[in-house]
Design goal:
The complex is a heterotrimer of chains A (about 425), B (about 170) and C (about 260).
Chain A: H1 11-19, H2 22-31, E1 33-35, H3 44-63, H4 73-82, H5 87-115, H6 123-145, H7 150-161, H8 170-178, H9 185-214, E2 233-235, H10 236-261, H11 291-299, H12 303-318, H13 320-323, H14 335-356, H15 361-388, H16 407-416
Antiparallel strand pairs in A: 1-2
Chain B: H1 5-34, H2 40-44, E1 48-51, E2 60-65, E3 68-74, H3 77-85, H4 97-100, E4 106-110, E5 121-122, E6 130-132, E7 137-139, E8 145-147, E9 159-163, E10 166-169
Antiparallel strand pairs in B: 1-10, 2-3, 3-4, 5-6, 6-7, 7-8, 9-10
Chain C: H1 2-26, H2 47-59, H3 85-93, E1 96-99, E2 108-111, H4 125-131, H5 150-159, E3 175-176, E4 184-185, H6 206-221, H7 225-254
Antiparallel strand pairs in C: 1-2, 3-4
Helix pairs in contact in C: 2-6, 5-6
The chains are: A mainly alpha (about 425), B alpha+beta (about 170), C mainly alpha (about 260).
Chain lengths: ~425, ~170, ~260
C-alpha cells in the first residue's frame, strides 16, 4: 500500500507529518484500495456516517433549547417547534433522522448477512457493529422519552420495568434506574444526560469499526479475497466517494420527503399528549425499528424468560461469525443459504408487524412461530448448513471470467458500473 | 480521453456539481446558526410598560427590559440644572441633556456601564450621578461619562410616555 | 437502477403495513374525508377560514378548552390567521389575567398583551375536572397531531353526533358520537346552526363551523406548516437536481476505468 511510505510534498507538511501523521492518514483514506465490484448496498456505510453526524449536530442544537425537567419538557419541545428559529425543521430532522438511521443500519446489517461480511477475517468489525447497533437502540429509546409525551412516558415505564424481571434485585435495579419509585423527573434528566453521551460513544466505536475495516479491506459481492491494490480495486477517492455521494443524495431525497411532507408519519399521535402517570394509552407500541424485539419479548409468556429471549436475540447476532460455519462468504454461491436468508428477512418483517399488533389470538401464535424460527435460523440452520450445503464453485478473481456461470455475479458487476 | 472536447465538458459538470453542492451546504448550515438568534417569544417581549406614578422626585426605580436593567430616575430641579449647566466640551462623549431626557424630569436609560457591562450604583461618584464599582467610571446626573474607563454615555433606550403615569420602553 | 426499484418497493410495503396498523387498530368507522387546503405539496391554510375558526374557538370551545401553547401574537404571525397587529392587540385586550407581584408585593389583574399565552378557562386540571363531571376537556394546542386521523378525525367528531343505536345504552352526561373512539363522548354537541355570527357574513352551518375550527386547530398544532411546505419543495427540487449532477459526475469518473458505462 502506498500510504506506508507516503512523504508530503512540502517541507511544512513533512515537518507536521513526522510529528502527527494526519497527512499520511488522509493519503491512506484517498488511496484505500476498494474492490471495484461493490454494489449500491455497500453505500450504506457512508450514509450511516452521515446519519450519525446529522443526529449529533441537530441534537446539540436541540439541547440548546430543550429543558430536561418533567414539568417543562413537553412545553420546551413545543417551544422549539413554535418559537425557535427553524426549530421545527431541526427537530423534525432529528426525529425522522433516527428512523432513517435505523432504516440504513438494517440495510447495512442485512447486506452483511447476505454477502457474509461478518465472517473471517472481519469478525471484529462485525462485533463492533453490533455494539454500535445496541448503543443506537439505547440512544434512540432514551431520545424517544425526552419529549415527555404519553408514549415517551409509558415506553420508559415498560422498558425500565424489564429489569424488574431480574430475580431478587429487580426492584432495586428499577428504583436505581428511575431515581424514585416510578418514572419521573429524575429519570428524564438522567436519560437526557445519557442520550447526549451515547452518540459520542457510538462515534468512537464507528472510528474503531472503520479502522478494523481498513485492516482486511472491504468484502465484496463475490465474497472472495481480492489482491490490493490490483486491477480488481479502485482508489477510494474519487471512485467510491462519488458513488457514496450519489447514493447519499438519493437517500437524502427520501429523508427530505419525510421531514417536509410527513414528519409525523413514523411517530405516534399519543406522543403529542403530555405524559400522564394516571392513564396508559390503549396501545403502547415502540418506534417501528424496535418492533421485532418487542414482538419477541411479548411472545414468551414468562416475564423473565421474555426479557432473556429479547436480549438473546441480539446476542445471537454477536456470536454469528461462529454460528455461520460455512467458509463461503457470499450468498451468491450458496443456493440454500440464499433461500434461508430471504426467509429470515421475511421472518423479521413478520416479527415487526406482530410487534405493532396486540398480543392476542392468532397474532400471538404467529409471533411465537416467528420468534422460534428466528432462533432456529441462527442456532440450528446456519451451523448445519455450513456442513451440508453444496455450494457453487467460486471464481478465481472478481474480474476473471466466472468459471461456473452465475447470473447473480454478472448482475452485480453490471450494477457496480452503472 | 482522445477527444479534446470531452475534458471540457467534464470540467463543467464537476464545477456545476461542486458549486451547487456548496450552495446547498450553505443553505443547510444557516438554520443551525439562526436557531441561536433571539426566538419569537423573546422578540415578543421587546416592549414593556412601566407605571411611574409612585416614583418620588429624586428617587429612581430599576426595571427589567429584555433582560437588562433600565433606570428610571425622577430628577430634582437641582439635578436637572446641574446636568444642563455642563459645557459640551467638558464631556468625553458630548451629548446635550436636552437630547437625553426629552421630559427633563424623567431620565430613562439602560443601567449598564458602557465599559464592560456592570450595573452602576445610583447617587454615587464625583458627579452626583452614578458610579460603576467594577472599574471606577463616574457618570453625571444625565448618565454621561465624566471620569473613568467607560468610552461613552449610558445608552438611552427607545421609550415613550403612553400617558403621564406610564412609560413604554421598547 | 434495479436497486432503487427494489428499495422503493420494500419501503412501499413497509409503510402500507404501518399505516394499516394504525387504521385497523383504532378507528371504528371510516372518517369523513375533507379536502383540506393545507394538504398536499403546496398546501396552505385558508386565511378567512382560520379567522372564522378562531371566532368559533373563542366563542364556543374556549369556555372549556385551553390552548396553553399559543400566544396572542401568533394570531398576527405569518402563515397563521394573519390578523393585523392591531386586531390581535384588540383580541388580546379582551382577556384578563393575573400578573404580579407589583412593587407592593401584590398580585393584580391586567388585560392580556400580544406576548401573553392564551388565557386558560380553568386555573388547573382539577378545577376543569370538577366543573365537567370528572372529564378533563383536553388542551387543544396540539390536538390535531395528538389524534390519529388528524384534522379529519376532529371534523368527523364535531359533526358525528347522533342518536345512539337501539342496542347501545348511554348514561346521563355521556353522548353518542359516530366517530369518537368507543362512540362515547362526555362533551355535548358543541355546534348548532347559527351558533356564531360570522363577521365576514359566511353562513354559520354546522359543517362550516366544524371545518373552520378544525382548520384553526390544524394551524395551531403546526404553525409553521406553510413554511415547511415552501422550504420542502425547494429542498427536494434541489436534491433531485444535485442527484442528477452527481449521477453524471459518477458516470464520468467511472468511465476512466470502465469502458462500458
Amino acid at each position: 500500500m502506498s500510504d506506508h511510505n507516503y512523504v508530503p510534498s512540502t517541507k511544512l507538511g513533512k515537518w507536521f507529518n513526522d510529528r502527527l501523521p494526519l497527512l499520511s492518514l488522509s493519503e491512506h483514506l484517498r488511496e484505500y484500495p476498494t474492490p471495484k465490484n461493490l454494489n449500491y448496498w455497500w453505500t450504506f456505510g457512508g450514509i450511516l456516517t452521515f446519519c450519525l453526524i446529522a443526529q449529533i449536530v441537530t441534537g446539540i442544537v436541540l439541547a440548546m433549547h430543550y429543558v430536561a425537567q418533567a414539568d417543562l419538557a413537553f412545553e420546551s419541545v413545543e417551544h422549539i417547534m413554535r418559537d425557535v428559529n427553524y426549530g421545527w425543521l431541526i427537530r423534525y430532522i432529528h426525529a425522522n433522522g433516527s428512523s432513517m438511521f435505523f432504516l440504513a443500519v438494517y440495510i447495512h446489517i442485512f447486506r452483511s448477512l447476505y454477502y457474509g461480511s461478518h465472517k473471517s477475517p472481519r469478525e471484529v468489525i462485525w462485533i463492533l457493529g453490533m455494539m454500535i447497533y445496541f448503543l443506537m437502540m439505547m440512544t434512540a429509546f432514551m431520545g424517544y422519552v425526552l419529549p415527555w409525551g404519553q408514549m415517551s412516558f409509558w415506553a420508559a415505564t415498560v422498558i425500565t420495568n424489564l429489569f424488574s424481571a431480574v430475580p431478587l434485585i429487580g426492584e432495586s435495579i428499577t428504583n436505581w434506574l428511575w431515581g424514585g419509585f416510578a418514572v419521573d423527573s429524575p429519570t428524564l434528566t438522567r436519560f437526557y444526560a445519557l442520550h447526549f453521551l451515547f452518540p459520542f460513544l457510538i462515534l468512537g466505536l464507528v472510528i474503531l469499526h472503520i479502522w478494523a475495516l481498513h485492516i482486511p479491506g472491504n468484502n465484496n459481492p463475490v465474497g472472495i479475497d481480492v489482491k490490493k491494490p490490483s486491477k480488481d480495486t479502485v482508489p477510494f477517492h474519487p471512485y467510491i466517494v462519488i458513488k457514496d455521494l450519489f447514493a447519499l443524495l438519493v437517500f437524502l431525497t427520501l429523508f427530505a420527503f419525510f421531514v417536509f411532507y410527513s414528519p409525523n408519519l413514523l411517530g405516534h399521535p399519543d406522543n403529542y399528549i403530555e405524559a400522564n402517570p394516571l392513564v396508559t394509552p390503549t396501545h403502547i407500541v415502540p418506534e417501528w425499528y424496535l418492533l421485532p424485539f418487542y414482538a419477541i419479548l411479548r411472545s414468551i409468556p414468562d416475564k423473565l424468560l421474555g426479557v432473556v429471549a429479547m436480549f438473546a436475540s441480539i446476542f445471537v447476532l454477536v456470536i454469528l461469525p461462529w454460528l455461520d460455519t460455512s467458509k463461503i462468504r457470499s450468498a451468491v454461491f450458496r443456493p440454500l443459504y440464499k433461500q434461508f436468508y430471504w426467509i429470515l428477512v421475511l421472518d423479521v418483517l413478520v416479527l415487526g408487524y406482530m410487534g405493532a399488533l396486540p398480543p392476542e389470538g392468532i397474532y400471538l401464535l404467529i409471533a411465537r412461530i416467528a420468534t422460534a424460527y428466528y432462533f432456529i435460523h441462527f442456532l440450528v440452520i446456519l451451523p448445519v448448513l455450513g456442513f451440508k450445503e453444496k455450494t457453487i464453485p467460486l471464481p478465481l478473481s472478481i474480474s476473471e471470467p466466472v468459471l461456473n456461470e452465475s447470473h447473480e455475479v454478472v448482475n452485480n458487476n453490471k450494477m457496480s458500473t452503472e | 480521453m482522445s477527444d479534446p472536447k470531452k475534458p471540457k465538458r467534464r470540467d463543467f459538470l464537476f464545477t456545476a456539481s461542486y458549486t451547487i453542492g456548496a450552495v446547498g451546504v450553505g443553505a443547510a448550515v444557516w438554520p443551525l446558526i439562526d436557531q441561536m438568534n433571539p426566538d419569537a417569544s423573546v422578540k415578543a417581549l421587546a416592549s414593556t410598560e412601566v407605571d411611574i406614578s409612585s416614583v418620588e422626585p429624586g428617587k429612581s426605580i430599576t426595571v427589567l427590559w429584555r433582560g437588562k436593567p433600565v433606570f428610571i430616575k425622577r430628577r430634582t430641579e437641582e439635578e436637572i440644572a446641574e446636568a444642563r449647566a455642563v459645557k459640551l466640551d467638558e464631556l468625553k462623549h458630548p451629548e446635550k441633556d436636552e437630547d437625553r431626557a426629552k421630559n427633563p424630569e424623567w431620565l430613562v436609560m439602560l443601567g449598564i456601564c458602557t465599559h464592560l457591562g456592570c450595573v452602576p450604583l445610583g447617587d454615587k461618584g464625583d458627579y452626583n450621578g452614578w458610579f460603576c464599582p467594577c472599574h471606577g467610571s463616574h457618570y453625571d446626573t444625565s448618565g454621561r461619562i465624566r471620569k473613568g474607563p467607560a468610552p461613552v454615555n449610558m445608552e438611552i433606550p427607545k421609550y415613550e410616555f403612553v400617558n403621564s403615569n406610564t412609560i413604554k420602553i421598547g | 437502477m434495479k436497486f432503487f426499484f427494489k428499495t422503493i418497493f420494500i419501503l412501499f410495503i413497509l409503510f402500507t403495513f404501518s399505516n394499516q396498523k394504525i387504521e385497523a387498530g383504532e378507528n371504528n368507522k371510516e372518517l369523513l374525508k375533507v379536502d383540506w387546503s393545507f394538504k398536499g405539496l403546496f398546501g396552505k391554510f385558508d386565511r378567512a377560514s382560520l379567522q372564522r375558526g378562531y371566532q368559533v374557538y373563542t366563542e364556543v370551545c374556549a369556555s372549556c378548552h385551553s390552548m396553553k401553547l399559543l400566544s396572542y401574537r401568533n394570531l398576527a404571525e405569518k402563515g397563521g390567521p394573519e390578523f393585523s397587529e392591531d386586531q390581535a392587540k384588540a383580541i388580546a385586550s379582551n382577556f384578563e389575567l393575573r400578573d404580579g407581584p407589583n412593587s407592593d408585593g401584590e398580585m393584580f389583574t391586567r388585560s392580556a398583551k400580544l406576548s401573553d399565552k392564551f388565557v386558560k378557562p380553568y386555573q388547573n386540571i382539577e378545577e376543569a375536572k370538577a366543573l365537567n363531571g370528572g372529564a378533563y376537556p383536553p388542551d387543544m394546542s396540539v390536538l390535531v397531531k395528538a389524534r390519529s386521523g388528524g384534522a379529519d378525525y376532529i371534523y368527523s367528531v364535531l359533526v358525528g353526533y347522533d342518536d345512539p343505536p337501539s342496542d347501545v345504552t348511554i348514561d346521563d352526561g355521556v353522548y353518542y358520537n359516530t366517530y369518537m373512539i368507543g362512540n362515547k363522548i362526555m362533551m355535548p354537541n358543541p355546534l348548532s346552526e347559527g351558533l356564531v355570527e360570522y363577521t365576514d357574513g359566511t353562513k354559520a352551518t354546522e359543517e362550516q363551523m366544524a371545518k373552520d375550527v378544525t382548520t384553526f386547530l390544524a394551524w395551531a398544532a403546526e404553525p409553521h406548516l406553510e413554511a415547511r411546505h415552501r422550504i420542502g419543495f425547494k429542498a427536494i427540487l434541489y436534491l433531485i437536481i444535485l442527484t442528477i449532477l452527481a449521477y453524471f459526475s459518477m458516470k464520468k469518473i467511472w468511465s476512466r476505468i470502465e469502458s462500458k458505462v
